[in-house]
Every structure is written in structure tokens, then in C-alpha cells.
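In practice, a research group might receive sequence data for several interacting partners and want a quick structural hypothesis before committing to experiments. The following worked case mirrors that situation: the sequences arrive first, and a predicted assembly follows.
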Amino acid sequence: MPIGAVIEFTNITKRFGQTTAVNDLSFTVEPGRVTGFLGPNGAGKTTTLRMLLGLVAPTSGTATFGGLRYRDLTRPLHTVGAALEAASFHPGRTAAHHLGVYTTAAGLPRTRVAEVLHTVGLADHATQRVGGYSLGMRQRLGLAYSLLGDPGVLVLDEPINGLDPEGIKWIRGFLSSMAAEGRTVLVSSHLLSEVQQSVDDVIIIAKGELVHSGPLSSLDTNIAPQVIVDSPDRDALAAALTNAGLAFTSGRTGLIVAVPDPGRVGHIAFTAGVELNVLHRQKAGLEDSFLALVEGGDSL
Amino acid sequence: MNLILRPVAAEFSKILTTRMWWILALVLFGYIALLAGGLAALFGGLDSGAISPDAMNTGGGSAGLSGLGSVPPLIYSFAASVGYVFPVLLGALATTGEFRHQTLTPTFLATPKRGRVLGAKTIALFVVGAALGVVGLAASVGIGALVLGGFGVDPLLADGETWALIGRTVLAMALWAVVGVGLGVLVPSQVASIVIVLAFTQFVEPLLRFAAAFTQVTADIGKFLPGAASDALVGASFYTLASPGGAMLESWQGGLVLLTYGLLATGFGYLTSWKRDVT
Ligand SMILES: Nc1ncnc2c1ncn2[C@@H]1O[C@H](COP(=O)(O)OP(=O)(O)OP(=O)(O)O)[C@@H](O)[C@H]1O
Ligand SMILES: [Mg+2]
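A structural hypothesis for the assembly, expressed as C-alpha cells:
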């Protein structure tokens, strides 16, 4: 039974010219749990995972598996299985040949090819050229590649993209069972709801920086109930709230005020003579906590 | 040992599981067979009197063709002197394809030591280039000798020098594939690489070699052009006939120059593109 290693990021930073894609990120990922690596588009998830896998050189900092950098692993595919978002296939090669190439490179038994194709549900398409594959089939083939070495660590970048509902259900169960076997499972997504049902821990980044890390339940208590308020004259409302000394952020449906009591917000608006068209108390859901975290950037 | 054997085996499998290698081998065979067969028929016809030399306006009689001993090697050398573009293309496609289809990601995940991958690719393409050499020779020697023999010209197949030429041709084709790998890693854009191969081999270099032959100084430089080095290695080609007494490297020097081109391109390409971030 493969035992997962601890993934550890230490002060990792990546700059592409002027752009800082990842900024001084530090966190650990534990074996035996599914960890969701979350952040909006462009947050730096893919860049972080590529640094972990030695494909992108960090500007500074390190990323290791049980203390070893990817390039120092003696049998990398045995230790870590990775599937990254971009389709990385020669369109003229069949799925079985595609996997066969890397089975040879890693010195794995040829029988693994059929086994992993069966696991991801592509057994019937093994001899089809990948050029004719659908997005979901490519996604499955990427996953098949990651499983070749029966690794103790799985690193998957947006594995749910392009899967049909049945596929999504299957992969959720699959990831949980991998973690239950003691493996380390790190899965990125830009949607919390996509992975919410299967993750144990979450790491949330925005603009290349860590904004939250902890068990999924920590998102629940992370944000207290809040008040959503809006006015036809939002500027006047904002001014009134500022005068009253209340902190708020702009949300999709109005201003989000970090107080539990709608009456207090209503009173402030009333005394300032600001008309309201929205005023309600909201018990933040996980997704809202997530959005608040990533919109707030590094303010939390 | 497995550390290099496995990546080499993987590189072979990459080539053999796509169609490009046999398409190129097929075209190479057809092209060289046509040229070698055609030229063998022409010379054979002249020698046997089936074609009148006067018709060729050479001004000489059949006696002028007593130097036909140089014809079979010339025809046999087509395998490399004309066919060399095929291993270069295969080598360039093998590297640029990795960039184009983003297969560097699974490749470097399976073999994180990138230099090892490039070394393995060079070794694999050297062997596949040699195999293309055998295909080219099957056309130039196989068809050429058959046609020459048909006209009663000695195809010189019992001659040890012919077999030495065949061996040097295989080596030249292998080295050309290595040059292709180097070009591909130096110019990772597949389209740009193909354009460079075709423009350089079919147009720029022949022109340069022709122009270089005019003065001694340029001729001394021109003999270091890759095509000239390859011809020197093989030891016979129509360029050498076209400019008799022209500057030529020794055979072994030609091979060394060609190898140097390949390794230099690969080395620079390793630093400029192979080691870069794979995003
Ligand atoms: N090769 C590159 N050159 C320049 N900038 C890059 C490069 N790769 C990524 N970036 C930049 O780095 C930032 C992070 O990109 P990254 O792909 O890591 O984000 P992501 O979180 O994976 O986003 P998504 O959810 O869209 O996949 C972006 O601003 C992007 O423009
Ligand atoms: Mg991404």
C-alpha cells in the first residue's frame, strides 16, 4: 500500500517578468486527506503546482514531497502522480501508446497501461487516436497517466473540468477512496462547490497569495453572519456606513456589512436619509466565505 | 544504466507510435529510387550506346565514358546527398512536436532530469537516422545497381570501396538526424523549424556552396557548410563532380564537422528552450 508523503511549500515565489504569479506562498498538504487548492482564475494555482512538479523554476522558495524536490525523487511516477490542466498529448498517438511511452520511460510494467485505462473508464477507447478524444476523455486520460505508477501522492489540476455528471460523481468518490488508503491528494479548482463534497482541507489563494488554509469546516465559522444592503444611491449608502464606522465590501447583490444585525444598518441608512432597496441578514454559505476570502485578497 | 536506456527506449517508442517515420521513409525511398534509377538509366544508356552521346552534346565519343567507374558511387551517394533532408526533418519534428503538443509535461514528469531526455532523444534519432540511411541506400544502391546492371555496367557491388561508401552514408544520415534534433530544440516553433530545414537544404545552402566555389577564400569557408561536410564524409556527390578540384574536407573531418553542428545546436537549444519553464 503506497503511503502518501507530506507536500510542503516554503516561501515559494514566481515572477514572470513584471507579473508576480505566486508570492511567498507557504503551506503543507497532509496524507490521508483530500486537500482542495482553490482560487479564482489567474490566482496562481497552475503555476504553483508546476513549481511543485519541477516544470517551472521558482524565483525563490522550495516545494517538496517528504523533504525531496520532485527532480530528486528516485522513482518520480511511483511517488507522485500528476495531471495538469493543459492537454498534453500527441493527437496521432493512441491512448495506450501515449501511456506506453511513459511507462517505458519510468520503467513500469506494461500491464499498468490497461489497468489505468480501465480505472478511468477508457478501456474501450485504448486504441483510438487521442486527436479524436472529447475534452472529458482527455481529462480521463490525463488522470490515467497520473495513476500509472500507483503513486502515494496525487496532484491534479482542475480534474473535474469537462467531466459529465457521472464522471464528476465518480471522481469525487475516487479521490476520497485514494485519501482513505493513506495517499496525499491535492486537487485544484476555481470553484469551491465543485470540490466541496470531497475535500477535507482547503488552501485558498488569491492573486498569488495565501488567504486561507485549514479544514473545510473552518470556512463555516470563518465568516460571521453578515448584512447585505443596497440602495439606488450606493455612494450615499457607502458614505453613511463609513461615517458610522462600519466596515463593508462590495458584493454582487449589494454592500456586505460585517455586522450580524440588519436593524443597525437600517437605522444608519434611515438617519442618513438614504433609500434602501435591499436589506437582509445572510448566514454566509461556504461558497460565500470562499468568495469573500478571494475578493478580499490578502486582507484576511 | 537503466537511467539512460529507459528514456532512449521511450524516445524510440515516441517515434514508432506516430506515423511520421514511415511516411518520411516511404517518400525518401520513392524519391531516391526515382533519381537513382533515372540517372543510372541515363548513364547506362550512354555507355551501352542505347543513347547517342552526341545527343547529349558532350562532344566526346563513347571513349569519354571510360571514366564510368565514378558513376555508381555518384548514384549511390544520392541516398545522403539528396536524402539528408529526411532525417533532419524527422529529428526536428521529434523535438518541436514535444513543444507543440505540450508533451514535455508528461515527459519531464516521467524523467525529471531534462538533459537525460535530450541525450536520449539524440541517441534514438541517431539510430533512426541510420535506419533512414538504410532506406535511402535500398533505393539508391538497390534500384541504381539493378538499372546499371541491366545496361551491362558494372555496379561495383563487389568493390570494398562501394561498401565503405554505404557505411559512411549510413553514418551521415544518422548525424543529420542529430542535427535535426539540435535545430528543433534551438528553434522550438515547428513551422519555423520546417521552413528553415526546407529553405536551407533546398535553396540557401546549394546557392552558398555554388557561390563559395568561385574564390579560394570562400571555398575554404564553404567546405565547412553542413552539406559540404556531409558530402565530404560520404566521399562522392554531384557537387564534387560539378566543381572538380574544389576544396573538400577529409572524410573523417566532414563527419566531425557535421557532428559538431548537431551538438552545438543541441547544446545551445538546451540552454535557450529545453531548460525553460514548461507552462
Ligand atoms: N508563462 C507565463 N508567462 C507569463 N505569465 C504567466 C505565465 N504563466 C502564468 N502566468 C501568469 O501567472 C498568473 C497565474 O496564472 P496561473 O495559470 O497559475 O493561474 P491559475 O490559478 O491556474 O488560473 P486558472 O484558474 O485560470 O487556471 C496569471 O496572471 C498568468 O497570467
Ligand atoms: Mg490553472
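Before designing any experiment, note the following. The interface with chain B takes residues 46-47, 50, 53-57, 70-71, 73, 76-77, 82, 84, 86-94, 97-98, 100-102, 104-107, 145 of chain A (CB under 8 Å). Residues A 16, 19, 21, 39, 41-47, 190; B 279 surround adenosine-5'-triphosphate (ligand 1) (CB under 6 Å).
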